[in-house]
Amino acid sequence: MMVHLVRATTRTTLLLLLVVALVTTSVESSKQHVNNKNKGNLRRKTEDACLYCTMYILDVQMEDHSVHPDTVYRCELEDDGVMYTIEPPQSYLEANPDPVDDIIGARVCVEQGVADASTNLITSGNGVVRTVERRRHRQLAKNSGDSTILVVRVKDGRGTGPVVSMNQLEGAHFGNSQYPVSVVSQYRDCSNGKLRYRPASDIGAQGGVIEVQVDFSFEGANVYSSEAAVLRQVNARLAPYGKSMQSWDHVSFCVPGGSKTNTDGGGGWLAYAYPFGRTSWFNNKWCDSLSAVVHEFGHNLGLLHSGGDASASGVELEYGDQSSMMGFSYLEKSKPQMCFNAEKSQQLGWYNDKILTVNKFPWTGHLNPMVDYGMSNAHQVILKVGASTMIHFNAATKANRGTREYANTIIVSKNLGTVKGRSYTSNVLAALNPGGFIIVENTYIIEACNDAVVRSESSSRPSYAKMSIRWSHEASSCDQEVDPNEPGGVQTPYTPPSPITYTNACLDMVDFNFNGVRYNDCDDLARSYRNFISECAHPNSIPSWYCPARCNQCGSRSGGADPLAQTATAPIVQKEDSVRRRTTTTTTTNRRRGANQESRRHALGEGKVRLETSLREEEEN
Fold first, then answer.
1. Does residue 467 contact residue 452 with C-beta atoms inside 8 Å?
2. Which of 8, 146, 374, 578 has the most CB atoms at less than 10 Å from its CB?
3. pLDDT at 42
4. Where are the membrane-spanning stretches (predicted)?
5. Which residues pair with 88 in a beta bridge?
6. pLDDT tens across 78-106, in order?
7. How does pLDDT run across 458-487, given as a tens digit for each residue?
8. 528 — pLDDT class (breaks 50, 70, 90)
9. What's the mean per-residue pLDDT of the chain?
10. What is the pTM of this model?
C-alpha cells in the first residue's frame, strides 16, 4: 500500500513539474515577443562580446553648394549590408585621427553592441569601439576592368516614385537616344577604356534598373534612417535569383523627394555616397544628373573632393575646382563632359605609364592632355613635382570638351592632406595661360611657355603645351629646343648659380617683400627696420643687396647668394641689368566670389592657346 502511494505521489509531482515548465516556457516566449515588438528588432552579437561592422563616413552634397555640417559615421553589418548610424566615442576618434586612412573601411568591434532597426542606431553597452582590421586602401568598387552597376528606383508607401522614370534612369546610367552621354560612356572615355561598366543582369531588371516599394513616405523623413528599409526590400527582391546587394560593384539608389539629412543647412541634399563603399543615393530630380552620378561613383572609387584656391575656406576649399567632376555637380542631363584633375587621375591609376616625375631642374618638355592619353604619339599627360604638386593640361576637347573652368590652361594642383578633420585630396594652386608662371613654395617656378596647341578632335596628333620647370633664381628655359619624340623632355642636373657682380648699381630696388611685410621703398625700410644701419654693414644682408644707395654700397661688388631667396614669404622673379636690380611679382590666383563662379582665376600671361582647325591640320600634314 505504501509503495503504490509513493509511486502515485511521484507521478503527480513529475506531472506538476512538467506543467510548470511548459507554462514558464510559454510566458518567457510571450515576454520575448513583447520585448522584440516594443524595442524594434534588436540584434546583439554575444560572441567575444563584439558586434562587428565596417565603418564608413557619409559624404553629402547639397543643392545650394554649401558644405554639409554633419560628420555622419555609419557602420555596415556583415550579414546583410545594412548601414546603421553610430556615434564613435571620443577615445576612438582620438586614436584614429585621419578619417580616410584610419576610419573608412575599418572593421570594428563594438563591445556589447546592439543594432536597433527601429532607430537605425548601433550602440555600445560599455562605450568601447575598437578597430579589428584596417582597410589598407582597398575599396569595394573597382577602378579598372569590368565592373557592374545596379540601379534601384524607390517608391514610397503611396506608390509615388521619383520624377525620374525607369527609362530615364537606364539612359542616364547606360545611355540611349535621350542620353547620348551616360555615366558608363563618360567613365569609359575618361579612362581610355580601362574602366568598363555593364548593367546588372539575370534578375529580371529593365536594362540594369529595378524598382522596390517601401511602406512609408519620404516627405520629412530622415534619409539615413530610411536606408535600412530600402536595403531590406532590395535584398528581398534579389533573393529569388540567389543575389544580394553585394553582388554588384555599384548600387545607385533614386528616392522620391522630400527627405532630409540630420542637418540640411541652407538647402536640401542632392546626393550622397560612401567613399570606398558601393552605394550612392540620389534625391529625386538629381537621379539622372550626369555630373552628380559620376561624382558620387567617384567617391565609391575612393576619390574625395577637388577644391579651389588653397587659401580659401569652406565651400571654395572643398568643391571649388570646376574643371573636375569632383567639384560641384550640375542639374543637367548628359553634360558637362569633363573628367578628373591630375591628382584624382593619378589615384585612379589610369595613366600611370605616362606620369613623369620631374626631379631635376631645369626641365623643359611637352605636356599632353589626359584625353589624348591613348594616342601612340602622346607622351606624359601628368607632371609630378615633389611629393604633392601635380600639373596637367586641361584641354577642352573629347571627353573633357565641357570643362566648366580653366579650359585650355595648365592646372597646377596640390594634395593638402587632412584639413580640420576632413580629408581633401587636392586644391588648385594656379591655372596658367601661355606665358604664365607660378612660384611654388618660394623654391621653383612652373612656367607655361608660349607654345600651346589644342588640336581638332579628328587630328591624328595630340594637343600639347610646352612647359618649363626650374629653380626660382634661374632664367626661363622655354627657348630650349625640345624633341617632340623625346617623352622625357630635356632634364638637366641642378648647377648652383655663379655669384652676381654689380656694376654701377646705385639705384635702390623699388619694391620687395621682406618677412611677409610689404615695403614700398628703402626709405620705408629704414624707418621700419631698427637695425638698418648695422644690417647694411653685414655682407649679403638684405638692405645692402636691395638698397645699395641707402647702404652706401654703390660701385662694383660681389654679391654671393641671394638672401631674399631664402627669407621671402612671397614669390619674386629676379632679373639683372647693368643699372639696377629689378623684381617682378605675379599674382597667380584671384579669389572667385559668388555661387555662380563667374570670376575665374588665371596666372600671369597674355598668351592665348592656339585652337587648330581641321584645315590647319591638313596644311601641316
1. no
2. 374
3. 61
4. none
5. none
6. 877 889 999 999 999 999 988 888 899 99
7. 999 999 999 999 998 889 999 988 876 777
8. very low
9. 77
10. 0.76
C-alpha–C-alpha distance, residues 548 and 333, integer Å: 64
Give the H/E segment covering residue 172. Answer: helix 166-174
**Residue 223: helix, strand or coil by DSSP?**
helix
| Amino acid letter, residue 316 | E
Q: Which residues contact 189 (CB under 8 A, 6 or more apart)?
A: 371, 398, 399
One CATH from 3.90.1150, 3.40.1350, 3.40.390, 1.20.1250 for 145-319: 3.40.390
51 CB-near residues (< 8 Å, 6+ apart): 43, 44, 45, 109, 110, 112, 113, 114, 115, 122, 124
- Are 44-133 and 145-319 equal in CATH topology? no
Q: Tell me how crowded residue 495 is: count the other CB atoms within 10 A of its CB.
A: 10
Q: What is the pLDDT of residues 529-560, one digit of tens each?
A: 434 444 455 544 555 555 655 565 554 334 44
Question: What CATH architecture is 44-133?
Answer: Beta Barrel (2.40)
Helix 290-300 and helix 183-190: axis angle, to 10°? 60
In terms of Cα–Cα distance, which of 404, 425, 314 is closest to 65?
314
Locate the domains of the chain by residue range. Answer: 44-133, 145-319, 342-491, 501-559
CA Rg value for the chain = 32
C-alpha 366: how far from chain center: 27
